[in-house]
Amino acid sequence: MNPSGQNTVVSVSRDDRHRFSKPAVGSIRLIEGFGVEGDAHAGATVQHRYLVTRDPSAPNLTQVHLIPAELFDELTALGYQVAPGELGENVTTRGIDLITLPLGARLHLGDDAVVQITGLRSPCSEINGFQKGLMKTLISTDAAGRVVRKAGVMGIVVQGGTVAPHDRIRVELPAGEQLPLGVV
After folding, report:
1. Average pLDDT, the chain
2. Digit-coded pLDDT (tens) for 151-178
3. What's the confidence (pLDDT) of residue 51?
4. Contacting residues for 105 by C-beta, under 8 A, at least 6 apart
5. In a domain, 121, yes or no
6. Residue 107's domain is classified under what CATH number?
7. Residues 6+ apart with CB under 8 A from 141
């Protein structure tokens, strides 16, 4: 939990090209059903280079990538140096355990924007090109033998708006059965 007791946006990032890291910017504009304006992964259908090769007409469930800043704190303790945007996320959060949210949870970002969580990000091998050995810290196995993915969550924009650092985040859980996140 954030010491202030608030769930907040730490940083926002976007890149108009498919590169591993995204530069931090002062604000981003989320467009309903599309994603982050000006970002290479925005679109109603898949934009991720690997997913496009499988089915370019598939709906884009990875319009927005969110990572908790607490992950960067953990990585720093392990000797890595990772700043917001460097793992390719659009929104860096603080105060929310993103990977434990159920499928369909909605994050109200700032005054207007709403992102619905679609699943976990499965980190790709490019992470080791960014910093050697980092992949092993982002995908591991827990004591029960379950795979744990820490590279954040993906979502779709269900209501547009502008998002900036220091914006508050409100979590809205889905009604009914709470389903765990799978990989998207």
Report:
1. 94
2. 999 999 999 999 999 999 999 999 999 9
3. 77
4. 116, 117, 171, 172, 173, 174
5. yes
6. 2.40.33.20
7. 147, 148
Tokens of residue 4, six digits? 């202030």
Alpha-carbon gap, residue 22 to 91, rounded angstroms? 10
DSSP string, 62-88: -SEEEEEHHHHHHHHHTT----TTTTS
Question: What average pLDDT does the segment 105-117 reach?
Answer: 98
Q: Which of 60, 48, 44, 56 is nearest to 18 (CA)?
A: 48
Provide the domain limits for residue 57. 8-172
Q: Which of 101, 93, 131 is CA-nearest to residue 9?
A: 93
In a domain, 123, yes or no: yes
3-class DSSP state of 106: strand
- For the whole model, what pTM was predicted? 0.94
Phi-psi region of 133 (alpha: psi -120 to 50; beta: other; left: phi over 0): left
**Confidence tier at 4 by pLDDT (50, 70, 90):** low
| Structural domain count of the chain | 1
- The candidate with the shortest Cα–Cα distance to 121, out of 34, 48, 23, is 48
> Residue 11 has what pLDDT?
98
